């Protein structure tokens, strides 16, 4: 047997156009597949694209109903016609809220905030990759941004 960990792999999954899921942890991929199926079914029932909050609610329910076997966290993010851009976190562990977050950030501020948050988390996780994958979701487009390791902010010596 040979096991290869791909530390550069993106953990971002497209659930629906303009709706993404970022996953981390044990069993996350199985839950993501279930969520994608349920969200597709929900969209057919509603005869419209799903709301971001509906996707986050599906994630919350899946995580709660599988809490004994699951060790994972999820970020559901996207854009919908009802509320515009949104981000929801479903976490089994502690959630870190950064005092630098503020509503109505510019795209540049939000991108830097997200990059900083991920760089801080990666500094505490020895299996995280060396790049940051960001996705900017607007009404007009879904844009994937990769920030290479040598461009990540440094918060400590090392």
From TrEMBL:
Pfam families (alphabetical): Proteasome
Superkingdom as given in the UniProt entry: Eukaryota
One cellular component term from this protein's GO annotations in UniProt: proteasome core complex
One GO term (biological process): proteolysis involved in protein catabolic process
Keywords: Cytoplasm, Hydrolase, Protease, Signal
GO terms, molecular function: peptidase activity
Signal peptide start and end residues: 1-22
Tagged with keyword Protease: yes
Keyword Hydrolase attributed: yes
The protein's name in its UniProt record: Proteasome 20S subunit beta 12
